[in-house]
Amino acid sequence: MIGTIQIREAIPSDAENLLNHLQKIAVETGFMTMGAEGPGKTVEAKQKELESILESDVTVLLVALDEKEIIGIAEIHGNESPKLKHIGDISISIAKDYWGIRLGTTMMERLIEWANGPTSQLKRLELTVQARNERARHLYEKMGFKLEAIMPRGVKDEGDYLDVCLMSMMIGEI
Amino acid sequence: MIGTIQIREAIPSDAENLLNHLQKIAVETGFMTMGAEGPGKTVEAKQKELESILESDVTVLLVALDEKEIIGIAEIHGNESPKLKHIGDISISIAKDYWGIRLGTTMMERLIEWANGPTSQLKRLELTVQARNERARHLYEKMGFKLEAIMPRGVKDEGDYLDVCLMSMMIGEI
Questions:
Q1: Residue-level pLDDT, tens digit, chain B, 174 residues
Q2: Angle at B93 between CA B92 and CA B99, to 5 degrees
Q3: Is the CB of B156 less than 8 angstroms away from the CB of A82?
Q4: Which of B91, B122, B153, B163 has the most A C-beta neighbours within 10 Å, making it the best mutation to test the interface with A?
Q5: DSSP letter for each residue of chain A
Q6: Does the beta carbon of A146 lie under 8 angstroms from any beta carbon of chain B?
Q7: Domain limits of chain A?
Q8: ipTM, 2 decimals?
């Protein structure tokens, strides 16, 4: 049974819980870029990363929790280079047991809210999604993302080279 | 006067010379992603990077030298993740004094040769180029790259948000 789900910014003490989530979803879906090899990071390294994300004005990482377990992650990853600082890369991952409850939509809404907020300098959001992942593509389109390219051989999964979609959304005033 | 130009793989002792080249071109052209802030790396860090590139089977870095000065760089940057290991990102930079002597063409030919060679597992080459950089776009088209997307606000230069082209070329047997 699914209880009340809480969404909040990740904090350094989430490190181990986060790595467990990543390892789990790396195995249960072929839609991730990361494969069964998992995140390959130590808890200490992840803690440091979470500390620097909390201080960053271009990157934000949200976690969704069911009780104490992380069951979803949504991230805008920015770039420190001055020429690219206005571009945010979005990625979302949700544990399979929690698909179909609009959690992806809710988390995406929170990311876009942050991207449009007072601390953000973002002007372009972008993401990649496997062409066969129709559920996710539909969600992104609904949120306002537009297809920019279909990239042949954009990912390899179980020996097959698959198409990957590049999608983007312009935000803010320029 | 331009003497005989030598092209070879970069070695660790090129580190300082390489950083000087990057700093120079970061200032002299607006076509780079890197701005006037320069590469921001120490010679020691660059040396370590060059050592690991020499051992990599997904990344190669070529330098063009006029006497002892590095005047051009061409790189295929691979990805260690198994699902993306077949994708190589290409970047080329040439000092302004050496534009118009077909050095870009020659270096790109050498990269493609390496990508098709026996040690390479690459199946997709990709690159980004500012839409206004017609000289470079023409070169890439001539070498067989196809336009996949025009990305609005793909880079910011001197306050302006500029279109960036995503181009790709499929190689090898799958």
A1: 567 899 999 999 999 999 999 999 888 888 888 887 888 889 999 999 999 999 988 899 999 999 999 999 999 999 989 999 999 999 999 999 999 899 999 999 999 999 999 889 999 999 999 999 999 999 999 999 999 999 999 999 999 999 999 999 999 988
A2: 115
A3: yes
A4: B153
A5: ----EEEEE--GGGHHHHHHHHHHHHHH-TTSSS-TT-----HHHHHHHHHHHHH-SS-EEEEEEETTEEEEEEEEE---STTTTTEEEEEEEE-GGGTTSSHHHHHHHHHHHHHTSTT----EEEEEEETT-HHHHHHHHHTT-EEEEEEEEEEEETTEEEEEEEEEEE-S--
A6: no
A7: 5-126
A8: 0.91
* Alpha carbons B12 and B50: distance in angstroms, whole number: 5
Whether A153 sits inside 8 A of B86 (CB atoms) is: yes
Q: Does B123 touch chain A (CB under 8 A)?
A: yes
Cβ neighbors of A162 (< 8 A, separation 6 or more) are A130, A131, A132, A153, A154, A155, A156
- The CATH number assigned to the domain with range B5-123 reads 3.40.630.30
Start-to-end Cα distance in chain A: 46
All residues of chain B having their beta carbon less than 8 Å from the beta carbon of residue A153 are 86-87, 123-124, 170, 174
The sheet carrying B60-66 orders its strands as: B5-9, B60-66, B69-77, B87-94, B124-130, B160-170, B146-157
- What is the token pair recorded at B84? 């993306």
B153 touches chain A (CB under 8 A): yes
pTM beyond 0.90, yes or no: yes
Domain topology for A5-126: Aminopeptidase (3.40.630)
Cβ neighbours for A100, distance < 8 A, ≥ 6 positions apart: none
